[in-house]
Amino acid sequence: MATKLDHDPDEKAAPFLTDQDRLVFLLEELTRRLRRTFDSSLEQFGLTRTQWRALAYLYRTPGMTQTELAGQLELERASIGQAIDRLEELGLVERRSAKNDRRVWQVHLRSAAIDLLPKMRVEADQVYARLLTGIKDEDLEAFKSTLAAMQRNLGDA
């Protein structure tokens, strides 16, 4: 139950919300909207953003293990296992035992995934074009540089 405030929330919040807070909140809101937009664009394929990312990593590095893929996507092994299960059900990937260790499963794209990836690339490019509409190249370069510096500042956190 929401309570009515006896004061202007911006006035009270002023000491607690800094310009840095506003910047970080803006970044978080941007990524949330980007995820939502991306998910919406992938619905036509019956895939999630995580599944798309998994396919992209597997295209780039065929035969990754589930553990390696989980590390790249920063997901728990159980979560990536579920994503791979779904991709397998859709006929997009297959698990194969590693030659040197039958307990390890490598994941490989099937031809259906290779056929689907260019269509998904078009969708991703359309989302990115929408995201970047009206932004000058030099502003994008400065923004990339700033984001890279922020990333370096946080290290491997």
Describe this structure in words.
This protein is mainly alpha-helical. The protein has a domain at about 45-150: Winged helix-like DNA-binding domain superfamily/Winged helix DNA-binding domain (Arc Repressor Mutant, subunit A). Helix content is about 65%, strand content about 10%. The chain has 7 helices and 3 strands; from the N terminus they run H-H-H-E-H-H-E-E-H-H. The protein has a 3-stranded antiparallel β-sheet with strand order 1-3-2. Helix 2 packs across helix 6, helix 3 packs across helix 6 (about 110-130) and helix 4 crosses helix 5. The mean pLDDT is about 90. This is MarR family transcriptional regulator.
What are the defining features of this structure?
7 helices; Arc Repressor Mutant, subunit A; three-stranded antiparallel sheet; 157 residues; mainly alpha
